[in-house]
Amino acid sequence: MEMNIFQIIWFVLWGVLWAVYFMLDGFDLGAGSLLYILGKDEKDRRAIYQATGPFWDGNEVWLITADGATFAAFPKAYAVMFSALYSALLLLLFSLIIRGVAIEYRNKHESPSWRSIWDFLFFLGSPLPALLLGVAFANIFKGVAIDQNGIFQEPLFHLLNPYGLLGGLLFVFCFATHGAIWVAFKTMDPLSERAGNLAKKLWVVTLILVVLFWAYSFAATRIWDNYLKAPILFVFPALAVIAYLSVPVFLNKKAYFKAWVGSALTIVAFTAWGVEGLFPNILPSSIDPAYSLTIMNSSSSELTLKIMTAVAVIFVPIVLAYTIWAYKIFSHKITEKDIAY
Amino acid sequence: MLVWNIPLPYIAGQAGWIVAEVGRQPWIVYGLMKTKDAVSPLSSLQVGLSLPAFIIVYGILGVICFWLIAYHARKGPEPAEATLKVETKLA
Questions:
Q1: Tens digit of pLDDT at every position of chain A (341 positions)
Q2: What's the N-to-C CA distance of chain B in angstroms?
Q3: CB distance from B42 to chain A under 8 Å?
Q4: Is B86 on the interface with A (CB under 8 A)?
Q5: A205: burial class by Cβ within 10 Å (0-12, 13-18, 19+)?
Q6: Closest Cα of chain B to A269: distance in Å?
Q7: What share of chain B is helix, strand, coil (3-state, %, to 5)?
Q8: CB contact B46 to A (< 8 Å)
Q9: B40 and A86 in contact by Cβ < 8 A?
């Protein structure tokens, strides 16, 4: 089957949407995972909520857009993916729902016991999406047991294989690091300094997990094949490494925003590594490569993709513009005055 | 008297959706695809667990939401002096 340029464009855009989603929601999922570790008292916890408050909803929109793009551009892959990963994705959905409600309802009632229930649910609902997304994507990289009809052939718990679990752990720690850096950036001392120190420790764990994951990917997936065929592509993992090594340098200087940018770039480059490694598959089959869902056999018609491209060219810049605007408005540090109110 | 009208739009909305979804059967895409042809290849365990889970999660959230709204309605608005204090803080 011939590949047309729009399929390639939308494959790239699909990767971009996931990369931006991980870069953005990563920090608020990560900050939530650290709610109890960093938030020693009510004041600290309020600061953490405020650090992520104005952003989390807009961040999650990128998840919806990534899913939506999968549906609209590659509907067959969407159908098979969401059936094969059904349990993981529903669990993801429920944890995101509960987390969102926790953020909104937490301060609607003055009683401390009300707040601690919602704090707990927010805390539970933060690393869980990270874990599930990591498990999901690791399994996508590895290949899922789909037959020629796209029917998933394995029992559910097969998603929790060692490679999948490693991917899940990697996402949890990567986002936790990303979140800790963000909290350090947005809050005042002593919370800021505590967050920065924790970020340094989490960074080490994440680094080990990335190395392990990349090594395991040689054995468990065909991702590195594309790189060995076209070595110029090594620029993606190289960028991830350089960006990630810059993080502790900035953390030691307490240049938290620069550290966060380094972490964000790492996440984007890592996602690019994965997506580029998948090309031209979207959902490889572990039963037989011929059964894989590729951008050729699972995309919408060329007309659909053309219309989508026209719409995206107009609206994605608008979304980017208001996202940057929102971040600029809320770029100040959270002070005592903000928390008291 | 007017308070008793509050549930009416919700009931109307739900009734409308029921008409639309029941009325479209057996088509999922009218004239092109039947609902039974659009079913995903999921095990009955997956659907059997996820459907009640949806109902329970949304049900609990609905009850909490209703309770919260009723709580704030009963509590009433903040006294005028408190609002004034907030406005001067922002100024």
A1: 578 889 999 999 999 999 999 999 999 999 999 999 998 888 889 999 999 988 998 899 999 999 999 999 999 999 888 888 888 889 999 999 999 999 999 888 888 899 999 999 999 999 999 999 999 999 999 988 888 776 776 766 788 889 999 999 999 999 999 999 999 999 988 899 999 999 999 999 999 999 999 999 988 888 888 888 888 889 999 999 999 999 999 999 989 999 999 999 999 999 999 999 998 888 888 888 888 888 888 888 889 999 999 999 999 899 889 889 988 888 888 876 666 54
A2: 41
A3: yes
A4: yes
A5: middle
A6: 34
A7: 75, 5, 20
A8: yes
A9: yes
